[in-house]
Each structure stands twice: as C-alpha cells, then as structure tokens.
Design brief:
Elements: E1 4-8, H1 11-21, H2 28-39, E2 44-47, H3 59-69, E3 74-80, H4 87-101, E4 105-109, H5 117-124, H6 133-149, E5 153-156, E6 161-165, E7 179-182, H7 190-199, E8 202-205, H8 210-226, E9 235-244, H9 248-263, E10 275-276, H10 278-290, E11 295-300, H11 305-316
Parallel strand pairs: 1-2, 1-11, 2-3, 3-4, 4-7, 7-8, 8-9, 9-10, 9-11
Antiparallel strand pairs: 5-6
Helix pairs in contact: 3-4, 4-6, 7-8, 8-10, 10-11
C-alpha cells in the first residue's frame, strides 16, 4: 500500500522516565531511534510540544539535533503550539532548522487544549491568555508564512503587530516550511476546518476514526476549493497512538499507565489504539490509508520505546515496505 510512514520520537517520555528514575535526561535513545527509523526506510520522524504542563525537550532544538543525525527523513512537529511563542523568533529558528536539514522540515501545528489547569498554564506561563489562543494561533501561522516569503512584512492583527520586518535566512523549501493544521471531525468545528482550508498546507488528524477522518478530509477540501486553493495539493496525515503486544490486556494496561503519566487525565480515551497484536495495528493503518491518509505517524504508548520499535520494524513495517 502506497502510504508514507512516520514515527513520533518520545521527547516527553525521555523526561518522564528520567524523573521516574531520579536521573538526568538522556537524549541519546531519541537520536538513536531517529537513525534506526531512517535506516528502516521510514519517511519522517516527529517531536511533540508543550511547555510546563508536560515537560519535554524543546521541539525546535530537538529538530536541529535530529537533523544532524539523519540525512533523508522529514523532521516534523506533532503538534507544535505556536500560540505560546513570539512569531518572529519562532520563524527564525524554524527557518534555521530547515537550512540545517537541507529542507526537510514540516510543521503539524495546533491551537492546543486546556483540558486541565496545568495545560492552561502552558499559555499563561508564556504570557498568553488561554482564551485567545485560537486567534493568536491563526495570526502566527499567517505571519510566519509571510516572513518566509516576503521582504518587508508589516502586520496589524488583534494579537500580533509587526512594522517592516525582514527575516533571513529563509527556509530552503520554496514557499516556506509546510504547515499542517490539526483538524478533527470529532472535536473540531467549522472554524477549525476553515482555518486549515485557508491557511494550511494540509491537515493532521489525531482522535478521529477512519470514517471521521475521511469526513474531515472531505470538509477541508471542499472549503479549500471554495477559497480558490487546490485541494489535491493538501497533505493528509494521521497520527496514531498504539501499543504492540500479543496480550491485548497487557498492552492496554501498559498504554493506560503511560498515558496517565503523560497527561494526568484519560486523554481521548477510546479514540486511540489499537492496544494489542501487530496484525491489528497493520489493519488499522490500512483503514486510515483507505480513508485518505497519505502519511501515518505512529506513537508508542509505552515506557519501553525501543521494544515497541523493534516489534513495529519486524512485524508491522514489512506489510507496508515489502522486501
């Protein structure tokens, strides 16, 4: 089946495990896994984002380190929270990583949830009102695209104001770094789909079923066409959270333990998985590819990322990368 495959590298898991074991964070396993993913023929590797609610490695710095250890895979964020950052320094840092990687960066980005007081603190700690995060998010997307493609950028928004800013270096990629906006049928809205259609280069789904993801694609592409954009050019990426184990009960227990430590709440319970045998994961990936995903990003909900990767490489990947 012709679908690209990516791997989420556990920058949050590294910190959680170090805290659990009372030691310093070691980024080596993440970088080793990036190399292994590239050697196995994966198309991309990704890192997540948060500030104080879910401590992890800072994503742009992590991307630069991954760029130095790889040569082919795309390096992405899943998902970046641009609303907690100032757009000019963010655009500068990301353009620099695109230069360092030879044009291999891609950004999946989201407004960010405030399901808990800790998540709301990600925004307040950055000096951003959580209630204004959606509007700020949209303006950051608009500003970064212009900074990457225009000589003199002025912007008078509700949240961001710029006066004649010129930014160098520019990204290697023509038109700037691709930006995929998190868009969901289950928890989304017309405004979310319209934002992706107007300002994104594609979408990333996280919590939808295959059927819901197909409807998300259809809605965004319909709106993109109405905006005069080419729907066929949109990237369609789906992000799966999984746990591979022949014993489904054990897989679920491992995943739930990891995710509760990760989020502190039962986040999107029932909408992630599968937890269980490799064959079930391969089948679910095929379902999302059939629903329209052109790339599938896998995250392992497990304390043992290396063991999960070994099973994925040996038992799942051959179904999509025949020898």
């Amino acid at each position: 089946m012709d679908v690209k495959i990516g791997l989420l590298l556990g920058t949050r898991g590294l910190v959680m495990r170090a805290q659990r074991e009372g030691r310093a964070v070691d980024a080596g396993p993440m970088l080793d896994l990036a190399e292994r993913a590239e050697a196995a023929g994966l198309d991309s590797v990704w890192v997540g984002d948060s500030l104080v609610s879910k401590p992890r490695l800072e994503p742009v710095a992590a991307m630069a380190a991954i760029a130095a250890r790889t040569s082919r895979v795309r390096i992405g964020t899943a998902v970046l929270l641009p609303a907690i950052r100032s757009p000019v320094p963010l655009a500068h840092a990301l353009a620099t990583v695109d230069v360092l990687s030879g044009g291999r960066t891609v950004l999946a980005m989201g407004v960010g949830g405030v399901f808990t007081p800790e998540q709301a603190q990600d925004f307040s700690a950055a000096g951003v009102d959580p209630k204004k995060r959606a509007g700020r998010f949209t303006e950051v997307v608009q500003v970064m695209r212009r900074l990457w493609t225009e000589e003199h950028v002025s912007f008078d928004g509700k949240h961001i104001q710029l006066d004649d800013v010129t930014l160098y270096p520019r990204p290697v990629q023509p038109g700037g770094i691709p930006m995929l906006l998190a868009t969901h049928y289950r928890t989304g809205s017309e405004a979310q789909a319209l934002r992706a259609a107007r300002h994104g280069d594609g979408i990333m789904g996280i919590s939808d079923s295959p059927e819901e993801f197909a409807r998300t694609i259809a809605k965004v592409e319909e709106l993109a066409g109405a905006e005069g954009r080419d729907p066929a050019a949109f990237e369609r990426v789906y992000y799966m959270t999984v746990n591979i184990d022949d014993n489904a009960e054990r897989a679920q227990a491992d995943a739930e333990d990891f995710l509760m430590a990760y989020y502190g709440v039962s986040h999107w319970a029932g909408h992630w998985g599968p937890w269980g045998p490799a064959a079930a994961l391969a089948e679910r990936m095929r379902a999302f590819a059939g629903a329209g995903a052109r790339e599938i990003v896998v995250r392992f909900a497990s304390w043992d990322q290396g063991a999960q990767w070994a099973r994925f490489e040996a038992e799942v990947l051959p179904a999509f990368r025949p020898a």
